[in-house]
TrEMBL record:
Residues 178-297 form the Ketopantoate reductase C-terminal domain. It is an enzyme of class 1 (oxidoreductase). This is 2-dehydropantoate 2-reductase. Keywords: NADP, Oxidoreductase, Pantothenate biosynthesis. Its EC number is 1.1.1.169. It comes from Fodinicola feengrottensis. It comes from the Bacteria. Residues 3-149 form the Ketopantoate reductase N-terminal domain.
Length: 302
């Protein structure tokens, strides 16, 4: 099975690298600057005692030679429109696409470009970052993929996709509730981003401050109220455990982007969530304030 991984960053590079190391037929669609780094150093996964180096097969926009069987999309939401244009020649009538982006609005964009039948749902769970040298650094022992059909009937070749992605050094799951899974992850990502991003601190910093626990509880309540009213109720227990631990050094990827002065996915994670909340009649004043604050930040860093 020919697999195209769109993006070789902290998520796509990690899972694509694992698949390539396991002998799968993987090609990465990357930009020229990333290609230079990967040609020079290889695709390197480090951290937690690991030092894996893969010699990746790379392709630039305009060099795709035909359709792939499976396309894994792992770019930031802010790069999705460009990625869709770049990957268009890789998508044929039998190609399946699994996106691993935050939020839900990317699904609409991919469906508009490639059709309902081509686009599956996906959830990636991983704690990685990119080092100044361009290496993928593991931050915690978290690495799994879940994917599945967003509607019935599921594509007949979905079982082949599951077989191809499994047994490559990370847990995989073929989910029958992938829409709910995506909503649950969105609620957690938004809660973690708001809790650490708005006050600019670790979970431990936030809960140690006067009013910190009340702030965390308010964020969690708003995020999970939206999923419930949208028809995908999720258990907030994991979010509450992760985001209320005294002394925890946990931060969100959004927090790390803020600290590093990088562009952030404010519209995909927060803007779209707040808009949906308004449409559903759910009051979310903390998320509205978070969205405004992050939009101001983003406006200064475009």
């Amino acid at each position: 099975m020919r697999i195209l991984v769109v993006g070789a960053g902290a998520t796509g590079g990690f899972f694509g690298g694992r698949l390539a190391a396991a002998g799968r037929d993987v090609t990465f669609l990357v930009r020229a600057a990333r290609a230079r780094t990967l040609h020079g150093r290889g695709l390197r996964i480090t951290g937690l005692g690991e030092d894996t180096v893969v010699t990746p097969r790379l392709v630039l926009a305009g060099e795709i030679d035909g359709p792939y069987d499976l396309v894994l999309v792992s770019v930031k939401a802010t790069a999705l429109d460009a990625a869709i244009a770049d990957m268009y020649p890789a998508v044929g009538p039998d190609t399946l696409i699994i996106p691993f982006l935050n939020g839900m609005r990317h699904i609409d964009a991919l469906v508009a470009a490639f059709g309902e039948d081509a686009v599956l749902g996906g959830v990636a769970k991983v704690a990685t970052s990119i080092s100044p040298d361009g290496d993928i650094v593991r931050l915690a022992d978290l690495q799994s993929l879940e994917y599945g059909a967003r509607r019935e009937p599921a594509p007949a070749r979905l079982a082949d996709v599951h077989k191809e992605l499994s047994g490559a050094g990370f847990p995989t799951g073929l989910s029958k509730t992938i829409n709910a899974d995506m909503w649950a992850k969105w609620a957690f990502i938004a809660a973690a981003g708001a809790v650490t991003g708005l006050p600019r601190g670790t979970v431990g910093d936030v809960v140690a401050a006067p009013g910190g626990i009340d702030f965390v509880e308010a964020v969690i309540a708003e995020c999970f109220a939206i999923t419930a009213v949208a028809g995908y109720p999720a258990d907030p227990a994991f979010a509450r455990t992760m985001l209320t631990q005294a002394g925890s050094s946990f931060t969100s990827s959004l927090y790390r982007d803020l600290v590093d002065g990088n562009s952030i996915e404010v519209e995909a994670i927060f803007g779209d969530l707040v808009e949906r909340a308004r449409g559903l009649g759910v009051s979310v004043p903390v998320l509205e304030m978070t969205t405004l604050t992050l939009r101001v930040y983003q406006g200064r860093h475009l």
